[in-house]
Amino acid sequence: ADVLAAFIGRRYGKHHINIPWVGNKRTLEGSLTFFVSSFVISIFTFFFFGQILPGNSIILTTGNVFLLSFLMSFISALLELFSPSKYDDLIVPLVSTLIVSICAILMNVW
């Protein structure tokens, strides 16, 4: 998602988002690309590991797959947008996974 967002943002980005502490230019087009691509990846991941191969976990309903995918994508896109460029490759996966894990626990699906 990160590489695709950077490519689309640099190539087609017209609406710049200026955030002083980030370090790199961000665009609305790149951020939306990050959201959409991470949403698609999350759907496949949650569907595969939540319904096809749940292991010892609770089997996720289709609604929970979409809800958790939306949460993961939305949180990840916000973290990518607001985190400093030097640290976003560390911050985005750690914090988004932590937050979605807490949401899954609160939803009683983990």
Care to describe what's here?
It is a single chain. The chain is mainly alpha-helical and 110 residues long. It contains 4 helices and 2 strands; from the N terminus they run H-E-E-H-H-H. A two-stranded antiparallel sheet has the order 1-2. A hairpin with an 8-residue loop joins strand 1 and strand 2 (26-27). Helix 1 (2-12) runs antiparallel to helix 2 (28-52) and helix 2 (28-52) packs antiparallel against helix 3. The protein starts with a helix and ends with a helix. The mean pLDDT is 89.
Break the fold down into its secondary structure elements and pairings.
Blueprint: H1 2-12, E1 16-17, E2 26-27, H2 28-52, H3 62-82, H4 88-106
Antiparallel strand pairs: 1-2
How is the largest sheet built, in terms of strand order? Answer: 1-2
Number of DSSP-assigned strands: 2
> What's the helix count?
4
Radius of gyration: 15 Å
- Mean pLDDT, rounded to whole units? 89
Q: How large is the share of residues in beta strands?
A: under 5%
- Class derived from helix and strand content: mainly alpha
The major pleated sheet works out as: 2 strands, antiparallel
What distance lies between the first and last C-alpha atoms, to the nearest angstrom?
Answer: 25 Å
What sort of overall outline do the alpha carbons produce when their principal axes are compared? elongated
> Share of helix among residues?
55-70%
Order of H and E elements: HEEHHH
